[in-house]
């Protein structure tokens, strides 16, 4: 059986993670082209996958100007560049795997779902958590009635102080007008998981939160714009840039600073680059903490907390049912079920744990399921198809409206105009 062929649009970190499946499983997936404005990224992609230079495009306009060259495209651009290439790919007859969020506009999210149906093409969204063994095990426990009827969900996204500072203060997702609001850019994963677990449409949303710490009013006295310009609290500040980006071991955060990951290149990039800035003197505007309350049509209630102010990056949750409760921590793959009455506690062992890295194993499983869905189009649907993902996106838009307007927002405000 021939592998599914794909063109990568946006050859950044996420795009190269998803296309890694082609190197690990070449009999399932083959990358035959790339569209990216960065010549270094195009060259790297060609080097990894070995396709002809004629299929290395500087933009998606050039890709779509010619005949279709693959079965599918992976759209892994920045948030505000998701809609147009995904729409044009569907119109050109490609199946599409689209990085979340679908779009910073709720109308465009709905338009993409409708275009997929009109084009009779698969549009799958990268809600990778649904594929992780951790959340699949939790979902199965709820489906099997191991805590009785699910009544309440408490879910925490512990972003981690360094992760937040890197991505949402200094990084590409720091401003909602350049990417999307935090609840959409980061936490649409979590709203999607709560929708999946509740297994019922969401009726209304309330939300509170804001940017309360990472601004100039909290800068230490004398702190310069750039950490390397003689910061007076460099020995004690947990966000001092050289401590994050100039370590001997180059991790994913340090790799974001410079394409050349040598110490000298990273040091030079911190001198006047975005990742070298004091976290209290950036141009960020996305929230650093937020809570969301959700009411589902089957009377399940849920609360979600996103916070930058955590020591570690992890997701933790508690599910409360009529016959028991479930507590879980993703980073350690700990799932515990307690039954009422007997008090019996059961630790659920994952046969294939993934932890936090690779979204708990969800990244690879998402791509494998996409390949299967393309092969068996019409008989096998993606777990994260656009039809399944649009509502959790609308929940995120409702949460942001609720936060800004400080009121309860019914989902009908978004769904009624569609009818």
Automatic annotation (TrEMBL):
Residues 139-410 form the Gfo/Idh/MocA-like oxidoreductase C-terminal domain. It comes from the Bacteria. InterPro entries: Gfo/Idh/MocA-like_OxRdtase_C, Gfo/Idh/MocA-like_OxRdtase_N, Gfo/Idh/MocA_Oxidoreductases, NAD(P)-bd_dom_sf. GO terms for molecular function: nucleotide binding. Pfam families: GFO_IDH_MocA (PF01408), GFO_IDH_MocA_C (PF02894). Residues 4-124 form the Gfo/Idh/MocA-like oxidoreductase N-terminal domain. Belongs to the Gfo/Idh/MocA family. PANTHER family: BILIVERDIN REDUCTASE A, BINDING ROSSMANN FOLD OXIDOREDUCTASE, PUTATIVE (AFU_ORTHOLOGUE AFUA_4G00560)-RELATED. This is Gfo/Idh/MocA family oxidoreductase. It comes from Paenibacillus sabuli. The lineage of its organism: Bacteria, Bacillati, Bacillota, Bacilli, Bacillales.
